[in-house]
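Input chain follows. Return structure tokens only.
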Amino acid sequence: MTTVKQCIDRKPHTIFSVRPSDPVESVLILMRDHRVRAILVIDDGKLVGIVSQGDCAIKVLLPHNNPKQVLVSEVMTRNPLTVSLSNSLDECMAIMVHKHIRHLPVVEADKVVGIVSVGDMVKSIIEHQGDQIKFLETYIKGHGG
């Protein structure tokens, strides 16, 4: 069973964040420049929200609001669900499916240490399946007459 810690350790340790008082434009720039789909909102070192690509599209762009004028605090999801390093990826996937979300901030001792995404879950599943296939191939070759 893969843990969040194992997943986070395989990823770059950069955490992309904005402040609630920043314009949504800064979120969009971070998403574009770093090819991520969600940005954490951190205020005074504390996680206060998350902004997804969907939030920007539905709450800012669709109503034709100006992302330079709309503040992050107006579109962010406040007090997002979080997980810890000890959670399993199976637990994370269950949360994501049940709550219809794609990103979970990882928090330890009230400090953000990373984020896991549905993409991380899929990558982990594919790697696990690859390992199982290799095991079965070795088993068959070693025990086939």
